[in-house]
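Hi Y.,

Following your request, here is the sequence exactly as I used it, all 174 residues.
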Amino acid sequence: MQLVIAPDNRLRIKTKPVKKITASHLKILTEMEKLARSFTDPEGVGLASTQIGEGEQFFLWKTKTHGFKAVFNPKILKYSKKTKQFFEGCLSIPNFYGNVSRPIKISVTYQNEIGQEVKANLSGMDAWIFQHEYDHLRGTLFMDHVLAHKSKLYKVVGKDRAGAEIFEEVPLSI
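Below is the corresponding structure, written out as tokens. Let me know if you'd prefer a different format.
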């Protein structure tokens, strides 16, 4: 299994609902988790179906307390009015980061890997990662938010002696 890297058009598809969760889906999720775990710098905290070239609505998300969770056919029912800016990146857009403003709390519904409906109120990192992966299923990338809000985009240009990444601002022309 390989990661789809931008500007590949498969990252822009609007996914279709999963009609029935099959053994094939579960096998793909196992491979997706292996792939996500293989990324350590930066850490893989989520992976959407579009990032592996699939066109159905599912993703994995690394929760704060329960490890990776499978999410099928997600819907965000409610967004908080309060937002926070996150310094966001994406495995499919290596070495680029930007400030993205997202709601700090969301109410969601989705099916888990055995098809049960789950309703949850998410906040903090859980809400942020869920929204990022949900965006992937709609063909939206974090850079779309950066551009829409005329935020700043950064590229990793190397590491310092201590191993910390060195960022350089990328000029945006719209």
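The beta strands are 46-48, 58-63, 67-79, 83-90, 93-103, 105-111, 117-123, 153-159, 165-170.

Thanks again,
Q.
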